[in-house]
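2024-03-11 09:14:02 INFO worker-7 job=invfold-0412 stage=load source=structure_tokens
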């Protein structure tokens, strides 16, 4: 943290006992897969045991540096990489409290003063920034065969890039495991990452660079909160990039959760060809527009009137909900017009015994029965509660991705540290997390810095963050009319949770982000 003079103050979490709740950025549990419960000894060697009083010391030292080249659209792009740790020190005692792992890419021969600096902070608590780096925005990108190749859509042509893992993700660790939980709230998470930004800017003499912050899914609250925090402490942020931002509580409160989810259900049914022929024949933009219109008019009125609807009105509402979801009318009736995403996927693919991936509803697979009747045991037939539903999209990607990324770190970037450490890609290193919502953080950031710009990328097939709920959140953002008219850019993608993993949509995302970064600064 910082005092009014901009100097790092004593990190308050060293002396404050936190009440940790099982919320991620104020919106419920984290996306992806959860870690161990904070404060409990781990029964899983992938989970980080926060009951331990001692851990392996992370050695101090300069980052590993390499010089590389890639070909982008027939031109050679030369750049310098750095891989290593930034220590977070107590400003009073100088003692190291945690080490944050990062990788950075700087274009050779570019002027540091005016070149943008784009820093990525990963996704939900537990999701490392490697997804963004190696999935589509860094200079190298993973191929389907497990190798990597030059990435023609890297953002390195437009900005120097930094990918940093918060405590509990990647190789980032608290120096004392039993202090790790103190980092797992939005306030302390933001303070620790602000310390990283300040240290990185000062160490690389980049204090004058146009600074952009990027977050993804429930980690977008981190980027929004960090923008407000840095502005408050005299480090100006030029812009914020939010990919599939976490939605506000109001957008999913009561019947609003069904209203804002319905367009995503329509898109999911559309991509699986479960709608009527005239709807299946529409483009993605057209069917999304039709679904928005239905949700905001007829569906809204039907949910509002409830049992006050006439029999004729109810019959029409049932038929229309069935038409826009691809579900049977009887199922709509049985659910009183209110279709939850988890029940929707199972019903949409019931004949195939299938289920949709929450992170990307285009990806479907067989849904195993959890009861295992007659095989002994109760509940889910396991030694404990039934397992969470399988997200086939993440499950099939994570293993190959992690294996390739660690090989990339060792062989391409020359990183030699943390040889015996677990790289926490998407679960296991972060326990229970409590936090604040994106909309409040964004409002505060714009209040402190009205010249800041915001880019929001929304994906049609991310059921965990429905695009219409994100649009609702932005429409109710407490900002001035001038900021709303000139500072906010919104783009839509035919993709799931991680837009950049889609080859076609990555090209569009690259163009949109390049245009965003090239916009002149507002006065």
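2024-03-11 09:14:09 INFO worker-7 stage=emit residues=523
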């Amino acid at each position: 943290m910082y005092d009014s003079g901009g100097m790092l103050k004593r990190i308050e979490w060293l002396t404050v006992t936190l009440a940790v709740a099982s919320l991620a950025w104020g919106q419920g549990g984290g996306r992806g897969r959860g870690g161990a419960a904070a404060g409990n000894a781990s029964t899983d060697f992938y989970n980080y045991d926060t009951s331990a009083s001692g851990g392996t010391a992370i050695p101090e030292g300069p980052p590993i540096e390499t010089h590389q080249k890639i070909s982008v659209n027939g031109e050679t792009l030369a750049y310098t990489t750095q891989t290593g740790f930034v220590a977070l020190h107590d400003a009073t005692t100088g003692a190291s409290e945690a080490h944050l792992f990062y990788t950075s890419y700087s274009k050779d021969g570019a002027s540091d003063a005016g070149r943008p600096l784009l820093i990525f902070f990963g996704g939900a608590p537990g999701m490392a920034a490697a997804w963004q780096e190696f999935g589509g925005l860094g200079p190298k990108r993973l191929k389907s065969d497990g190798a990597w190749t030059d990435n023609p859509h890297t953002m390195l042509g437009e900005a120097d890039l930094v990918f940093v893992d918060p405590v509990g993700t990647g190789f980032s660790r608290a120096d004392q495991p039993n202090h790790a939980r103190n980092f797992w709230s939005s306030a302390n998470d933001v303070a620790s990452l602000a310390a990283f930004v300040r240290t990185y800017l000062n160490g690389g003499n980049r204090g004058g660079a146009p600074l952009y912050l990027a977050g993804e899914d429930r980690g977008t609250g981190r980027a929004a909160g960090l923008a407000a925090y840095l502005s408050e402490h005299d480090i100006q942020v030029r812009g914020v990039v939010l990919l599939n931002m976490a939605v506000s509580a109001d957008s999913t409160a009561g019947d609003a959760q069904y209203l804002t989810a319905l367009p995503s259900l329509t898109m999911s049914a559309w991509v699986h060809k479960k709608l009527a022929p005239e709807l299946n024949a529409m483009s993605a933009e057209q069917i999304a527009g039709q679904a928005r219109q239905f949700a905001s008019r007829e569906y809204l009125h039907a949910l509002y009137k409830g049992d006050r609807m006439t029999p004729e009105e109810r019959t029409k509402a049932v038929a229309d909900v069935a038409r826009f979801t691809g579900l049977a009318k009887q199922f709509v009736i049985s659910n009183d017009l209110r279709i939850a995403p988890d029940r929707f996927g199972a019903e949409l693919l019931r004949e195939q015994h299938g289920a949709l991936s929450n992170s990307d509803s285009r990806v479907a697979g067989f849904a195993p029965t959890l009861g295992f009747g007659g095989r002994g045991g109760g509940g889910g037939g396991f030694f404990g509660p039934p397992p969470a539903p399988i997200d086939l999209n993440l499950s099939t990607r994570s293993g190959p991705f992690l294996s390739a990324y660690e090989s990339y770190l060792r062989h391409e970037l020359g990183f030699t540290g943390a040889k015996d450490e677990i790289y926490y890609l998407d679960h296991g290193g972060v326990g229970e997390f409590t936090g604040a919502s994106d909309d409040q953080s964004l409002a505060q950031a714009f209040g402190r810095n009205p010249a800041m710009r915001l880019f929001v990328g929304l994906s049609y097939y991310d059921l965990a963050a429905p695009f219409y709920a994100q649009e609702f959140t932005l429409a109710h953002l407490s900002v001035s009319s001038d900021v709303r008219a000139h500072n906010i850019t919104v783009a839509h993608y035919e993709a799931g949770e991680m837009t950049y993993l889609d080859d076609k949509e990555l090209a569009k995302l690259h163009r949109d982000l390049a245009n965003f970064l090239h916009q002149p600064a507002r006065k």
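2024-03-11 09:14:09 INFO worker-7 stage=report msg="The CA atoms of residues 379 and 385 lie 6 Å apart."
2024-03-11 09:14:10 INFO worker-7 job finished
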